């Protein structure tokens, strides 16, 4: 399943948040007036690299701010956390303090990771401050609408605030936990099949193992697993269909091999059908919001004409469906994916 011809645009442009998208965000309570912006956090004088527990560069840096500036930033970040978690109720940050501000030099949005700690019991949480990228916001919205997961984020002009998504990074899980004898491998394989299906329908790209997490939930008779995307930078930008299929990334081969070992063709198709049925239920329950999102995203330029043309051809070949050639935007392709699911599930 591994492919050598997957090339991803590491410097995908940041697409601005349009007035139509801003209106959508306000309608669905995703907008917020924030006291601190992404650019405010960029105003550090110097930084030093943060090493991981093995002594290797983590690709995160610790910014150094002036003393007076730091107090203002900390106060603003606590207000942002209250907005994100409790609709602005400042009582939840009464006993919390900002423990760390970390800056990532890798990736398109160069995020800041904020660690906030409760001084009463030392329990901590993280959240992220990023450049607002329209395609990433569309990815977050599609994840909220079409996946079984909820995402929590806020946007203020060019600043995007995201809640931390807890879980074991997919690359760590595959090396350390994948073959744990206490885990049912069929359940893990089933979840990877469903994740693979969702990514293609939503056109969420670059789901290599380090861009998703595995969540583990003990149940009364077994352990449940869920794979969740944590990076939405490559939402419907690329033209290569393989970028939207996690099965084709070499980093995901341990999961692919587990699927090959544990699933028959019949069970593979069964799990695909289960996910399509779940997608159909979500589409029906959120049809008005999905329609609003479609209307807004179809107004935005979020990729190149070449990428759209290449993906149309790839989808046509993959599904043996000439209708993909009539699509004019990436949004049209997603809409056709959903229409095809509706037809298949009704059969």
Largest sheet, strands/sense/barrel: 7 strands, antiparallel
Structural class: alpha+beta
Low-pLDDT ranges: none
The strand count comes to 10
Strand content: 15-25%
Question: What are the main properties of this structure?
Answer:
globular; 2 domains; 7-stranded antiparallel beta sheet; 347 residues; 42% helix; 10 strands
Written overview of the protein:
This protein has two domains: 19-163, no CATH class; 168-346. 42% of the residues lie in helices and 18% in strands. The protein is built from eleven helices and ten strands. The protein has a seven-stranded antiparallel β-sheet with strand order 1-2-3-4-5-7-6. A three-stranded antiparallel β-sheet has the order 8-9-10. Strand 3 and strand 4 form a beta hairpin.
Brief sketch in words of this structure:
With 347 residues, this protein is of the alpha+beta class. Helix content is 42%, strand content 18%. The chain has 11 helices and 10 strands.
What topology emerges from the helices and strands here?
Layout: H1 19-27, H2 38-41, E1 46-51, E2 57-64, H3 67-86, E3 96-104, E4 112-118, E5 124-131, H4 134-146, E6 153-156, E7 159-163, E8 168-169, H5 170-176, H6 185-202, E9 212-218, E10 223-229, H7 253-262, H8 265-285, H9 287-297, H10 305-319, H11 330-346
Antiparallel strand pairs: 1-2, 2-3, 3-4, 4-5, 5-7, 6-7, 8-9, 9-10
Helix pairs in contact: 4-9, 6-7, 6-8, 8-11
């Amino acid at each position: 399943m591994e492919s050598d011809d997957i090339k991803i645009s590491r410097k995908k442009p940041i697409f601005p948040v349009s007035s139509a998208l801003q209106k959508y965000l306000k309608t669905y309570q995703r907008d917020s007036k924030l006291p601190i912006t992404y650019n405010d956090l960029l105003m550090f004088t110097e930084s030093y690299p943060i090493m991981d527990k093995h002594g290797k560069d983590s690709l995160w840096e610790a910014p150094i701010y002036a003393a007076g500036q730091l107090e203002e930033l900390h106060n603003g970040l606590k207000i942002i956390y209250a907005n994100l978690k409790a609709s602005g109720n400042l009582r939840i940050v009464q006993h919390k303090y900002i423990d760390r501000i970390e800056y990532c030099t890798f990736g398109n949005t160069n995020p800041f990771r904020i660690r906030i700690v409760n001084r009463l019991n030392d329990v901590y949480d993280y959240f992220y401050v990023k450049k607002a990228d329209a395609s990433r916001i569309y990815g977050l919205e599609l994840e909220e609408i079409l996946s079984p997961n909820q995402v929590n984020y806020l946007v203020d002009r060019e600043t995007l605030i995201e809640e931390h998504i807890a879980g074991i990074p997919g690359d760590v899980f595959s090396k350390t936990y994948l073959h744990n004898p206490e885990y049912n491998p069929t359940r893990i394989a089933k979840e990877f099949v469903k994740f693979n299906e969702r990514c293609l329908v939503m056109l969420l790209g670059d789901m290599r193992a380090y861009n998703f997490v595995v969540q583990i939930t003990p149940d009364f008779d077994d352990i449940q697993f869920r794979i969740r995307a944590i990076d939405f930078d490559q939402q419907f930008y690329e033209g290569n269909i393989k970028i939207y299929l996690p099965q084709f990334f070499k980093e995901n081969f341990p999961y692919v091999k587990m699927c090959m070992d544990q699933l028959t063709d019949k069970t593979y198709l069964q799990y695909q059908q289960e996910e399509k049925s779940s997608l159909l239920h979500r589409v029906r329950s959120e049809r008005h919001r999905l329609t609003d999102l479609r209307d807004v995203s179809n107004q935005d330029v979020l990729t190149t004409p070449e990428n759209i043309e290449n993906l149309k051809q790839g989808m046509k070949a993959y599904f043996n469906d000439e209708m993909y050639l009539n699509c004019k935007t990436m949004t049209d392709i997603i809409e056709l994916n959903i229409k095809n699911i509706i037809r298949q599930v009704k059969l």
